[in-house]
């Protein structure tokens, strides 16, 4: 019993002590990891040695999150010399893997690999490997999540390549709409697109117009002015001599109602990734310039969120975009039996958010004037090899409780920051609640 009390107190302490702002560095780098026998990438030196040097540089600079493309057959050499704590597991070399991997100083959840719907071999062998994109919910601080994408789009300049490449980026844009609704987002990778190329339409119309993403190269280097489509390309040397030129490697971002994201610095980082081998001293290690962005985040004074409970299954949902100004919960309803089937909250303004299925038994609690939902216990378990939420208990500021489902041995207590209360949810649903996080707003 004493251990349980200590864990509950610790959870509350962590919630109240969570940071509300911070900074991080994000690097995107095509590491030219195709087998040397297939593609030299016009880079001098042995690719295994070059890859070990890339890993050494990753360790030296300690960038917070690094997305790699073309990390195929020399992946082990990079990981051998790098020291980042959190690493994706490779999907394999050519022709099995996508070449997409990530390393980070912070953890993530829900790592997913997605293959392109369309590819083209008109200018090369883009269909040789299952290129596509990856998705993760990156967790740089307690209660802070950013949906981070890594992509490698179709290359080439034939008509079929343009069709495939626009399809690739549109696939990511649509995925963001479905799986990152209401969330802060960063997209990094080798788009094989340029703003000056008229045929690369989705880079601007999809990510900017559809998803509301900002390119820090446009924002910081060009004062918000996009290059004219069809104008002469602002081609970079390798390594780039300045940040004014354009390459196909991009980073784009947006914030959310919970999290403000801002870019304070953008640069092509090629001069920090040069060969140290005496035979090739000063030569580039890849045919791509790495791009480096310094970003800051700050938590909104109007909303917060808890960590996620459960597993990455079912369909994404998020109350956040639909919350009214100054929300306050008035009725809480849960459904559950063996597991947690459904969660629902009705606000004093009339809006109601319900997620999950119709199974189990419903139980409701109407909050009194001045009463708020401030503490939650969520318990998880396994069903058909999937982690799901089995149990929920809400505790109000008046000490009243509401629960549903079956308690397990794997339970976590989530306590709202001082002055905040639960007003909504985000997570993944099916017939039950697979994954759940709580949305908090200031007490009214």
UniProtKB/TrEMBL annotation:
Alphabetized UniProt keyword annotations: Signal
InterPro entries with a match to the protein in the record: Endo/exonu/phosph_ase_sf, IPPc, Jacalin-like_lectin_dom, Jacalin-like_lectin_dom_sf, Sph/SMPD2-like
GO biological process: phosphatidylinositol dephosphorylation
Domain of life where this protein originates: Eukaryota
A GO molecular-function descriptor: sphingomyelin phosphodiesterase activity
Nucleotidyltransferase keyword on record: no
GO CC annotations on file: cytoplasm
Signal peptide range in chain numbering: 1-17
Kinase as UniProt keyword: no
Jacalin-type lectin domain boundaries: 314-442
PANTHER family assigned to the protein according to its UniProt record, in alphabetical order: SPHINGOMYELINASE DDB_G0288017 (PTHR16320:SF1), SPHINGOMYELINASE FAMILY MEMBER (PTHR16320)
Protein name as annotated: Jacalin-type lectin domain-containing protein
Species the sequence originates in: Cladosporium halotolerans
């Amino acid at each position: 019993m004493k251990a349980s009390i200590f864990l509950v107190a610790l959870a509350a302490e962590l919630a109240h002590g969570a940071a509300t702002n911070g900074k991080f560095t994000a690097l995107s780098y095509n590491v030219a990891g195709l087998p040397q026998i297939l593609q030299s990438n016009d880079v001098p030196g042995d690719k295994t040695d070059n890859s070990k040097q890339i890993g050494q540089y990753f360790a030296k600079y300690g960038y917070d999150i690094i997305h790699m493309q073309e990390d195929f057959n020399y992946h082990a050499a990079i990981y051998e010399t790098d020291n980042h704590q959190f690493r994706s597991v490779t999907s394999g070399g050519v022709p099995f893997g996508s070449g997409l991997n990530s390393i980070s100083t912070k953890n993530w959840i829900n790592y997913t690999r997605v293959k392109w719907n369309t590819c083209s071999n008109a200018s090369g062998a883009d269909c040789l490997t299952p290129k596509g994109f990856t998705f993760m919910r990156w967790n740089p601080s307690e209660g802070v999540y950013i949906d981070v994408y890594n992509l490698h789009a179709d290359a080439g300049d034939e008509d079929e390549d343009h069709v495939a490449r626009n399809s690739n980026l549109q696939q990511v844009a649509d995925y963001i709409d479905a799986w990152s609704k209401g969330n802060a987002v960063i997209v990094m990778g080798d788009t094989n697109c340029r703003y000056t190329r008229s045929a690369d339409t989705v880079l601007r119309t999809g990510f900017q117009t559809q998803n509301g993403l900002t390119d820090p190269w446009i924002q910081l280097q060009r004062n918000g002015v996009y290059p004219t489509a069809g104008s002469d390309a602002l081609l970079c040397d390798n390594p780039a001599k300045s940040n004014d030129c354009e390459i196909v490697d991009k980073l784009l971002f947006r914030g959310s109602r919970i999290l403000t994201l801002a870019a304070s610095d953008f640069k092509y980082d090629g001069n920090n990734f040069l060969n140290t081998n005496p035979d090739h001293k000063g030569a580039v290690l890849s045919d791509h310039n790495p791009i480096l962005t310094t970003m800051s985040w700050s938590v909104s004074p109007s909303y917060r969120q808890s960590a996620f409970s459960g597993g990455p299954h079912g369909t994404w949902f998020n109350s956040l975009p639909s919350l009214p100004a100054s929300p306050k919960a008035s009725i809480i309803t849960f459904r559950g039996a063996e597991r947690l089937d459904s969660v629902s909250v009705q606000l004093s303004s009339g809006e109601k958010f319900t997620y999950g299925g119709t199974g189990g038994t419903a139980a409701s609690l109407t909050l009194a004037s001045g009463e708020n939902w401030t503490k939650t216990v969520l318990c998880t378990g396994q069903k058909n090899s999937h982690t799901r939420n089995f149990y929920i208990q809400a505790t109000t500021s008046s000490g009243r409780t509401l629960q549903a489902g079956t308690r397990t041995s794997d339970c976590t207590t989530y306590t709202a920051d001082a002055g905040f209360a639960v007003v909504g949810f985000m997570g993944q649903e099916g017939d039950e609640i697979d994954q759940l996080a709580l949305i908090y707003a200031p007490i009214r």
